[in-house]
Task: inverse folding
């Protein structure tokens, strides 16, 4: 592929069935709401190159099936994810109550340093709200998650959710908290990054190839 | 009014009417000046409504173009008398010499009698705002069989007219037909039915007959107006200077080219249409024949015939929709001995559950927390059914809330959760139930649904027995490597395991990922050959797109396979599937699967991490 990017991040979209995971992904990539969407069986994919703090980052997004029953299948896709959107539906307390389970899975199975952003989706349906911004925000703080309320319908905060998550990962890389070269980090160098790395300052990085993870 | 009686040989001369008349031109100019007329011509179509005895009018304005020759395109309806006149009233054609414009009706022309339910007499009035007859200007009457240039549909006629005016020094009046560039009838039947009178505008209510072109007649209605000029033809001949031979030659040539092109186009179109029609007829005939064979020969003798080579071959070609449900039911069988009664029992139990669930949502929630996840999952699956039904074939708009099959789908899925509470509802089931509902009635669909899900492969998947699923994927990969070693290696290189695309395909039996008609054909053979065919189809798809896939990286392959192209064709897939070899080192699918099940080697070559 002739795409150039500095980094490739593996992203997950997880959360209960019907919370709008696929619609968030579709809105993020196509910039419009998918009103005749099917439910996801297994996993679907999306990818997009975004620009974050002067770096172009390719997001490789794994949009997983939400039904509890598929957990055993979708768990196998968590491995090596650098970031995740944890989605619940603000009009359904049930989807909010399930967050702990999703979170445990993600922390356990994806990379240890996985950056997770909590997304309270269907923000446009404020009249039917069952989960307040405040309590979700508190939950996010307690669990060290970023938090946004999003609307896949209107597109509000959708791009922001992906971008903020990617920015946090980049910050972690810069601060050294995250090592992209560690196996299972969910991060790969793109061609552009490789070129930079081949600069004299880090000549030894020549050996770094796109790590297959 | 011009009546051209021509054959293709004559057409060159017959269709070109050159009116050279200086005085006419002067008159035109005068009129132009007098009436500040624009070069726009307004066509007024008057439709005589025989029921109400009124005229309906449609006006279409057209600008003349400098370059192209303005055209008057006429799609004749049945029994239409078209007249060009500036007068408001319509003048009947001359009795002796009916101003008849006979138009050839080509084979493929659209003659819809029903389109003209009320117009015994439809009048097309050509009206130039400057008071001039449009026909006095350079114009081409051009009949198109297939489509009208103007929006004439509103006239309830297929008589379409384009007319415009050019300011050239001489005035040509041309009547052409796209069919043959000859305004004539070749269809005898049509000749009787199609009587198109195009009478000249009142300005030209004179006889127009050219000595060189004897077949052309312009009839003059009896009723003429005072300002009507002398008989048209003599009028032109007397008063207009002869067209220079060179110029006439040039125009004739141009005209011939136009005609030739139009004819070529027409011929091509006609051939295409004919081919399409033939193909469709052939297809319909073969479907009809197959349906007959299935319903009269095979189905009555199912047990003895179902495994014969002839039936299997016919089966491979796709089941006719009329017998599809029946054949599926027979092929899936009913090992579980489900009866209509059992379905009704399950359904009523499901309804009870829904009612109590709805009544005590809050109570169920606290119970669920006490009883742990499994109960929550059970209850959630009731909610999930509702949610997923609306997300099942959303584009068909028949399973959604308010759609005709919404309740049926809901009932079958609900009844199944009562029949197999240990399995419950699993995403993907709604697609299977929906496809069955589309092909059989409710109770039969339920019987087929339960028996289908009871097959080993489907049970493994719908119980989400992950290790058993991995065994299936491993078996698939054995045949994948055997059939497509290069692509297999490429996938391995990109860490793309087969579960990524197979899960969706196997769970929904391709009904979500392939267009529905192709999915049904896969189901046909799946009913014949069993689970093996699902994996064979997967290999067929991979083979079909092998060249594209080998040039893609992980994310593009994953995206491609989880969202197959819409324009995928059944023939391509099936011919690709035919080439898949389901025999690996003398082992067929069941043996490979068995040996993988026995040997604890359950993880696939790719999934081994």
Result:
């Amino acid at each position: 592929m002739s795409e150039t990017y500095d980094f490739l991040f593996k992203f997950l979209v997880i959360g209960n069935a019907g919370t709008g995971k696929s619609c968030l992904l579709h809105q993020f990539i196509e910039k419009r709401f998918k009103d005749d969407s099917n439910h996801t069986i297994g996993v679907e994919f999306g990818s997009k190159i975004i620009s974050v703090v002067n770096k172009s980052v390719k997001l490789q997004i794994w949009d997983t099936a939400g039904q509890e029953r598929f957990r055993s299948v979708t768990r196998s896709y968590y491995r090596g994810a650098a970031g995740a959107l944890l989605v619940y539906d603000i009009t359904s307390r049930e989807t909010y109550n399930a967050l702990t389970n999703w979170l445990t899975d993600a922390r356990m199975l994806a990379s240890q340093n996985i950056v997770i952003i909590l997304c309270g989706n269907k923000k446009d349906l404020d009249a039917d709200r069952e989960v307040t911004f405040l309590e979700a925000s508190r939950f996010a703080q307690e669990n060290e998650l970023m938090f946004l309320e999003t609307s896949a319908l209107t597109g509000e905060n959708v791009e922001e959710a992906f971008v903020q998550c990617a920015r946090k990962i980049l910050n972690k890389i810069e601060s050294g908290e995250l090592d992209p070269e560690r196996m299972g980090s969910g991060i790969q160098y793109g061609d552009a990054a490789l070129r930079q790395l081949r600069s004299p300052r880090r000549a030894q990085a020549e050996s770094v190839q796109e790590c297959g993870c | 009014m011009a009546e051209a009686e021509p054959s293709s040989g004559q057409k060159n001369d017959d269709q070109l009417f050159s009116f050279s008349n200086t005085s006419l031109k002067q008159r035109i100019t005068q009129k132009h000046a007098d009436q500040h007329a624009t070069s726009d011509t307004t066509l007024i179509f008057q439709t005589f409504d025989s029921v109400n005895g009124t005229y309906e009018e449609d006006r279409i304005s057209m600008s003349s173009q400098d370059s192209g020759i303005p055209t008057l395109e006429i799609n004749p309806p049945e029994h239409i008398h078209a007249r060009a006149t500036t007068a408001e009233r319509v003048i009947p054609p001359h009795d002796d010499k009916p101003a008849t414009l006979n138009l050839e009706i080509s084979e493929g022309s659209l003659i819809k009698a029903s389109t003209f339910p009320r117009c015994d007499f439809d009048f097309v009035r050509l009206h130039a705002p400057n008071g001039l007859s449009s026909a006095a200007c350079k114009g081409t009457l051009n009949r198109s069989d297939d489509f009208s240039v103007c929006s004439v549909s509103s006239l309830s006629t297929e008589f379409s007219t384009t007319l415009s005016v050019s300011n050239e020094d001489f005035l040509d009046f041309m009547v052409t037909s796209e069919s043959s560039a000859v305004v004539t009838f070749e269809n005898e039947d049509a000749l009787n039915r199609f009587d198109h009178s195009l009478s000249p505008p009142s300005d030209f209510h004179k006889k127009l007959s050219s000595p060189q072109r004897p077949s052309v007649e312009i009839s003059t209605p009896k009723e003429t107006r005072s300002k009507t000029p002398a008989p048209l033809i003599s009028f032109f001949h007397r008063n207009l200077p002869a067209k220079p031979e060179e110029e006439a030659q040039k125009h004739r040539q141009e005209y011939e080219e136009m005609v030739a092109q139009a004819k070529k186009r027409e011929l091509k179109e006609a051939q295409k249409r004919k081919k399409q029609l033939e193909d469709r007829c052939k297809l319909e005939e073969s479907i009809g024949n197959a349906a007959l064979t299935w319903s009269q020969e095979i189905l009555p003798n199912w047990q003895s015939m179902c495994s014969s080579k002839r039936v299997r071959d016919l089966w491979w070609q796709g089941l006719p929709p009329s017998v599809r449900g029946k054949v599926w039911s027979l092929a899936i069988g009913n090992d579980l001995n489900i009866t209509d009664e059992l379905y009704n029992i399950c359904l009523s139990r499901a309804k009870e559950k829904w009612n109590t669930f709805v009544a005590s949502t809050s109570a169920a929630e606290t119970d669920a927390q006490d009883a742990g996840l499994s109960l929550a999952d059970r209850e959630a699956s009731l909610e999930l059914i509702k949610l997923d039904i609306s997300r099942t074939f959303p584009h068909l708009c028949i399973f959604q809330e308010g759609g005709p099959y919404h309740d049926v789908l809901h009932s079958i899925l609900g009844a199944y959760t009562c029949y197999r509470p240990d399995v419950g509802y699993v995403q993907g089931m709604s697609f299977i139930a929906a496809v069955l509902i589309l092909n059989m009635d409710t109770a039969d669909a339920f019987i087929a649904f339960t028996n289908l899900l009871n097959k080993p492969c489907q049970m493994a998947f719908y119980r989400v027995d992950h290790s058993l699923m991995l065994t299936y994927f491993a078996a698939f990969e054995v045949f994948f490597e055997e059939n497509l070693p290069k692509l297999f290696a490429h996938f391995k290189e990109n860490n793309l395991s087969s579960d990524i695309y197979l899960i969706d395909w196997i769970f929904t039996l391709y009904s979500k990922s392939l267009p529905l008609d192709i999915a049904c054909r896969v189901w046909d053979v799946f009913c014949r050959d069993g689970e093996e065919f699902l994996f064979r189809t997967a290999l067929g798809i991979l083979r079909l797109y092998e060249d594209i896939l080998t040039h893609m990286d992980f994310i593009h392959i994953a995206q491609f396979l989880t969202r197959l192209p819409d324009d995928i064709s059944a023939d391509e897939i099936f011919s690709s599937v035919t080439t898949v070899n389901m025999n690996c080192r003398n082992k067929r699918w069941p043996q490979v699967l068995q040996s993988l099940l026995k040997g604890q080697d359950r993880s696939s070559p790719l999934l081994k991490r």
In short: The domain at 7-198 of chain A is CATH 3.40.50.300 (Rossmann fold). The longest strand of chain A covers residues 43-52. The longest helix of chain A spans residues 158-174.
